[in-house]
Amino acid sequence: MSKTNVLYVEDEPFLGRIVKESLESRDFAVQMATDGKQALTVFREINPDICVLDIMLPQKDGYTLAQEIRQVNPAVPIIFVTAKTQTEDVLKGFESGGNDYLRKPFSMEELIVRITNLLSMTQHKNAVTREALVIGQYEFLVSRYELKFKDRIKKLSHREASLLKRLCENKNATLSRKDILLELWGDDSFFNSRNLDVYITRLRDYLKDDPSVQIITIKGIGYHFAVG
Questions:
Q1: Virtual CA dihedral for 192, 195, 200, 205, nearest 10 degrees?
Q2: Residue 178 and residue 161: Cα distance in Å, rounded?
Q3: Would you call 96 helix, strand, or coil by DSSP?
Q4: pLDDT per residue as tens digits for the range 59-85
Q5: Where are the extended beta strands (E) located within the chain?
Q6: Which of 3, 40, 42, 47 is nearest to 25 (CA)?
Q7: Cα–Cα distance between 104 and 111 in angstroms, integer?
Q8: 3-state secondary structure 143-198
Q9: Peptide bond into 77 cis (omega under 30)
Q10: Could you give the CA distance from residue 16 to residue 180 in angstroms, rounded to a whole number?
Q11: Residues 6+ apart with CB under 8 A from 124
């Protein structure tokens, strides 16, 4: 069985060496870069299975790097590792294409669990058909992260596309809030719950041109995705 190929980007040499060696001791194949510009070159060369990115990097920050990686490969999982803890920093990370967010300091066990879970989720999603999904008058191109309405195309972030896809899988049914949080964020903490509120509001705005499509809040339970 081939090893999981990890792109690890960290500009602190001591921490970088520890994490790289720890991952390699657990049978991961790790390519490390120390700045954002170098990292994009390495990404193109090795086409990794998953990326673990610091945010504060020389040459090019992690947010910009993630956006550029998404242009090359919209589906590769990205974990941000950073000391930044403000809500706006976390949201910016998700908006730029991140799938998960790990705060420093962290344990290797936690990093490995998150890598494993994210890879498992990605493999499951990749097994699902990539055909366009019809949502009322909209067409949702899942693999392209695009929502089409007549001649207009809205480019979705990774998190927005993942949430909309989950709702589409439960069209005209009720989906529990906890299930969404556990699948897309990995836990149902208050902080992630507030993030979910933000993304639900955005999707409602994107879908507002077709009144037959509604994301209805079921208080204390979750959401009913009604499509006429």
A1: -170
A2: 18
A3: coil
A4: 999 999 999 998 888 888 999 998 876
A5: 5-9, 29-33, 50-54, 78-82, 100-103, 133-135, 138-141, 146-149, 152-155, 174-176, 213-218, 222-227
A6: 3
A7: 11
A8: HHCEEEECCEEEECCHHHHHHHHHHHCCCCCEEEHHHHHHHHCCCCCHHHHHHHHH
A9: no
A10: 33
A11: none
Which structural domains are found in the chain, ordered by start? 5-127 (3.40.50.2300), 155-227 (1.10.10.10)
Whose tokens are 């006429």? That residue is: 228
Place of tokens 């207009």: 152
Please state, as a whole number, how many other Cβ atoms lie within 10 Å of the Cβ of residue 58. Answer: 11
Give pLDDT tens digits for 17-55: 999 999 999 999 999 999 999 999 999 999 899 999 999
Q: Rounded distance, CA 196 to CA 75, Å? A: 21
Q: Edge-to-edge, what's the strand order for the sheet holding 222-227? A: 174-176, 222-227, 213-218
- Rounded to whole angstroms, the Cα distance separating 83 from 85 reads 6
Q: How many whole angstroms separate alpha carbon 184 and alpha carbon 127?
A: 17
Q: What is the dihedral of CA 143, 147, 153, 156, to 10 degrees?
A: -70
pTM of structure? 0.57
The tokens describing 131, both together, are 């055909």
